[in-house]
C-alpha cells in the first residue's frame, strides 16, 4: 500500500507543479487553492509512505515521478522542447525510479 500512496503522492506533485503555472504567482484564487491542496496532499501521502519505506528511496521516487510527469506535461500543455537530449534524460530518470523500486525490499 505504501508504494501506491507514494505513486499518488508523486502524481499530486505533478499536479501542483503544473498548477503553479496556472496560479500566475498565486494571483488567481481557484488555481491557487487547488495547487495548495495538491501540495498538502502530496506531502502528507509522502510522509505516510515513509512510515514503511526508506526515506531516500521514497523521496527520490517522489521527486522523480514529479519531475518526469511535470516535464511531459510541460511538453504537452505548454509546447516546451521535446528534443532528444531532454527525452533521453527523462528516460534515465525513469530507469532510476524503476531501479530504486526493484532494489528496495517491501
Describe the protein in words.
It is built from four helices and no strands. It is mainly alpha-helical. It has one domain (2-103). It is flat, with a radius of gyration of 15 Å.
How many strands? Answer: 0
Based on secondary structure, the structural category is mainly alpha
What is the element string, with H for helices and E for strands?
HHHH
Output mean pLDDT: 97
**Total of helices:** 4
**Helix coverage percent:** over 70%
User: What is the molecular shape?
Assistant: flat
How far the N terminus sits from the C terminus, by CA atoms, comes to 10 Å
How many domains make up the coordinates? 1
- The percent range for strand residues is under 5%
Oligomeric form: single chain
- Give the uncertain stretches in residue-range form: none
* Biggest beta-sheet profile: none
Write down the Rg.
15 Å
Overview in brief:
The protein is 82% helix and 0% strand. The protein is mainly α and 106 residues long.
Could you name the key traits of this structure?
mainly alpha; 106 residues
Topology:
Elements lengths: L1 H22 L5 H21 L5 H24 L5 H20 L3
Amino acid at each position: 500500500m505504501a508504494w501506491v500512496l507514494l505513486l499518488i503522492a508523486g502524481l499530486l506533485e505533478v499536479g501542483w507543479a503544473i498548477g503553479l503555472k496556472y496560479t500566475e504567482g498565486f494571483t488567481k484564487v481557484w488555481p491557487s487553492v487547488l495547487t495548495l491542496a495538491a501540495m498538502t496532499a502530496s506531502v502528507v501521502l509522502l510522509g505516510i509512505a515513509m512510515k514503511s519505506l526508506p526515506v531516500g528511496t521514497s523521496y527520490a521516487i517522489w521527486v522523480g515521478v514529479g519531475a518526469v510527469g511535470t516535464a511531459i506535461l510541460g511538453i504537452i500543455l505548454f509546447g516546451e522542447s521535446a528534443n532528444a537530449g531532454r527525452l533521453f534524460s527523462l528516460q534515465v530518470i525513469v530507469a532510476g525510479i524503476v531501479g530504486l523500486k526493484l532494489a528496495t525490499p517491501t
